[in-house]
Amino acid sequence: MAGSGSAHLRPPGQAVLRAEDLVVEFPADRGRSVHAVSGVSFDLLPGETLGIVGESGCGKSTTARALMQLPPPLSGSVRLDGVELTRLKGEALRRTRRRLQMIFQDPISSLNPRRRVRDIVAEGPRVWGVGGDRVDEILEAVGLDPATAATRRPHEFSGGQCQRISIARALVLEPEVVICDEPVSALDVSVQAQILGLLEDLKERYRLTLVFIAHDLAVVKNVSDRILVMYLGKTCELAPGSELVERPAHPYTRALLASIPRSGLGLPPADQLISGEPPSPVTPPSGCRFRTRCPKAAPRCAQEEPEMRSLGGDRWVACHYPETETETETGTAPA
């Protein structure tokens, strides 16, 4: 049975990927722990793109690595087509990872500088004995000419081209789910648009399911069917992309949207919706973790942690005083 933090999950069996109540902690000084991910839950239908967004240090990339079991979460569940990954070890886990591939943030450092492109892309198929004849096809699919690119090394390519190589390396193994961990944050804006368009084309061509992680909500909203907003290891809001952008319910989501230049949403300036720096994940605030920066914080926010609550349809928010359409129109806070 789903816990209070996973009430928004679909019934088991519908989703290709299902993460439930993920907890990831790392040791800190004086016997304390870094609370990197604290009870995050989400699922993905086949062919869906889930965007995960939040400030640096909110736990996005740690969540991505927990899905890959790198390292496994301290507690919680990760199921791929119903198979519980947290219980797999050794060879069984390695074989399952073939179906769950990852594209990393830094396209240059993620590639072996001593190897030629053909060897980089063909390494996975050689290990698993699958897809070895698809290297040229995949290179062409990501916009690289096999005749000229395959024999060159990563340092001979631009950052955008290296990311295309990274994408090819992930896709050649025919994965079901691809986790994109800030795949365009290290690229120029014009190159970002090219890579985003490429991912959309490849998603349709190869029937992929994507987890797309970024700190820039302006990027995430253009590629995601649904968006999950994280703050200090917790889920703030989860909603279809268009609805989250047009009707943000959580104060933190509103602040992120207000920080987008020329968003056209008529929101107050971001510095009126959020202030100060995020608290330490070693000693997170009691109750709502966003309360120390939230203009709507009340005593209840310090005493009681908000659970995910439905706003109707597929919209969910973890806030005691979520923004409502009435409030947005009148400028008043809920009683």
From TrEMBL:
UniProt-listed InterPro entries: AAA+_ATPase (IPR003593), ABC_transp_ATP-bind (IPR050319), ABC_transporter-like_ATP-bd (IPR003439), ABC_transporter-like_CS (IPR017871), Oligopep_ABC_C (IPR013563), P-loop_NTPase (IPR027417)
What GO molecular function annotations does the UniProt record carry, in alphabetical order? Answer: ATP binding; ATP hydrolysis activity
Q: Where are the transmembrane segments?
A: none
Region (Disordered), start-end ranges:
268-288
Positions of the ABC transporter domain: 17-257
Specify the superkingdom: Bacteria
GO terms in the biological process aspect are: peptide transport; transmembrane transport
Q: Keywords on this record?
A: ATP-binding, Nucleotide-binding, Transport
Q: Read off the SUPFAM superfamilies from this record.
A: P-loop containing nucleoside triphosphate hydrolases (SSF52540)
NCBIfam families (UniProt xref):
oligo_HPY
Q: What does the sequence similarity comment in the record state about its family?
A: Belongs to the ABC transporter superfamily.
Q: What is this protein called?
A: ABC transporter ATP-binding protein
| Source organism of the structure | Planobispora takensis
